[in-house]
């Protein structure tokens, strides 16, 4: 679905340039490896999420291997608005991946925040937060080649001036918005979030700024906005444990967990992933029930477990399901995607047949 950066920003952040008291804070579900897949995204949308991200996807694998595309990227006409996050340091790889998803998402995001050692060694993730020229080139070339809106998710640098340099570089390249995790690569989860630095970035930015880090409760959302004035908040661990977070729930409602079970049965996926998701959400369930649940070994076992406790009140008929009854009237983004092919695909295939540097 072709869309300009300006249109995307206007649709997702309609009031971002207004006075603080007039802005609506956009609530985002973070890209989480293995976890922010289609069933979970759909549940989060039902319970108040404004925007969802896919898990981080390695662009090179996505571009070259059909199996990787089938496993890593699944969506639905109601899975909107959607941002696909890619990891790469190569502008052509990012542009090629953006081209492939352009009819199924509203933009792509560059992972400049993953703190894992392997990501740093592969020159992706948080390593990129210290490489403003590389990130600028990726944003610029992807915009030029595909017209797909591009955002980035970063970590703070030890020197705040380096974070500002990165912001200025991507603004000049046409970035849509920037999500800031309020810690440095070295701090991981050990240190408090540097809300003061996020606030400074918001004050000088020419694009919307989204805060990320330690936002796990409804009060955390309120305080993050009060401390920084940001245009949006992005939640990871908090939303993983409680998809009802954006609707104001402190603990995940049982109905929300049942919604996830229903979505997983309708939309598919791996049993272990579904069990882990539901286990994370079951903080409000007794310790004995959680222990029994974690010992289950099939989706049929989970359904029986739910039925035995009187928690299952759903039909597996698609017309009676959450998806079948989904009220699409609120969702201006919902539309059936229509794939297109362009010359860019051929150009890209010639490029990778010669090697990433263009030589045979």
Key structural traits:
single chain; 360 residues; TIM Barrel; 16 helices; globular; disordered C terminus
Question: Can you give me a brief rundown of this structure?
Answer:
By secondary structure, the chain is of the alpha/beta class. The chain has helices at 5-12, 38-46, 59-64, 66-72, 91-101, 117-121, 132-146, 160-173, 195-204, 218-228, 237-241, 254-267, 271-281, 287-294, 299-308, 343-354; strands at 26-29, 51-53, 57-58, 82-87, 107-112, 150-156, 178-184, 209-212, 232-235.
Overall description:
This protein is an alpha/beta fold. The chain folds into 2 domains: 237 residues, TIM Barrel (Alpha-Beta Barrel), CATH 3.20.20; 77 residues, no CATH class. The protein is built from 16 helices and 9 strands. An 8-stranded parallel barrel has the order 1-2-4-5-6-7-8-9, surrounded by 7 helices. Helix 2 links the parallel strand 1 and strand 2. The radius of gyration is 20 Å and the shape is globular. The C terminus is likely disordered.
Question: Which SSEs are present, and which pair or pack?
Answer:
Elements: H1 5-12, E1 26-29, H2 38-46, E2 51-53, E3 57-58, H3 59-64, H4 66-72, E4 82-87, H5 91-101, E5 107-112, H6 117-121, H7 132-146, E6 150-156, H8 160-173, E7 178-184, H9 195-204, E8 209-212, H10 218-228, E9 232-235, H11 237-241, H12 254-267, H13 271-281, H14 287-294, H15 299-308, H16 343-354
Parallel strand pairs: 1-2, 1-9, 2-4, 3-4, 4-5, 5-6, 6-7, 7-8, 8-9
Helix pairs in contact: 2-12, 5-7, 7-8, 12-13
């Amino acid at each position: 679905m072709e869309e300009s950066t300006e249109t995307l920003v206007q649709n997702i952040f309609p009031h971002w340039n207004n006075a603080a008291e007039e802005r609506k804070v956009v609530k985002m579900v973070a890209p989480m490896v293995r976890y922010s897949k289609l069933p979970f995204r759909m549940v989060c949308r039902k319970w108040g999420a404004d925007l969802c991200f896919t898990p981080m996807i390695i662009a090179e694998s996505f571009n070259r291997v059909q199996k990787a595309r089938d496993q890593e990227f699944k969506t639905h006409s109601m899975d909107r608005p959607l941002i696909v996050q890619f990891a790469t340091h190569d502008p052509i790889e990012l542009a090629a991946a953006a081209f492939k998803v352009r009819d199924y998402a509203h933009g792509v995001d560059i992972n400049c925040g993953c703190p894992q050692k392997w990501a740093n060694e592969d020159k992706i993730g948080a390593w990129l937060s210290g490489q403003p020229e590389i990130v600028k080139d990726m944003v610029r070339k992807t915009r030029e080649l595909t017209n797909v809106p591009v955002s980035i998710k970063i970590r703070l640098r030890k020197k705040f001036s380096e974070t500002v340099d990165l912001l200025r570089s991507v603004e000049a390249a046409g970035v849509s918005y920037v999500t800031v995790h309020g810690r440095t690569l070295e701090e991981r989860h050990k240190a408090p979030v540097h809300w003061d630095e996020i606030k400074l970035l918001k004050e000088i930015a020419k694009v919307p700024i989204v805060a990320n880090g330690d936002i796990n409760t409804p009060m955390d959302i309120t305080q993050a906005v009060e401390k920084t004035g940001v245009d949006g908040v992005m939640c990871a661990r908090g939303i993983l444990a409680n998809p009802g977070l954006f609707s104001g729930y402190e603990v995940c409602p049982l109905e929300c967990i049942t919604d996830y079970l229903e979505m997983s049965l309708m939309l598919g996926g791996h049993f272990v992933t579904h069990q882990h998701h539901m286990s994370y959400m079951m903080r409000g369930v007794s310790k004995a029930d959680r222990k029994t649940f974690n010992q289950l070994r099939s989706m049929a076992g989970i359904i029986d477990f739910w039925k035995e406790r009187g928690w299952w009140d759903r039909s597996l008929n698609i017309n009676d399901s959450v998806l079948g009854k989904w009220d699409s009237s609120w969702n201006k983004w919902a539309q059936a995607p229509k794939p297109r092919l362009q010359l860019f695909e051929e150009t890209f295939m010639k490029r990778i047949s010669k090697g990433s540097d263009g030589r045979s």
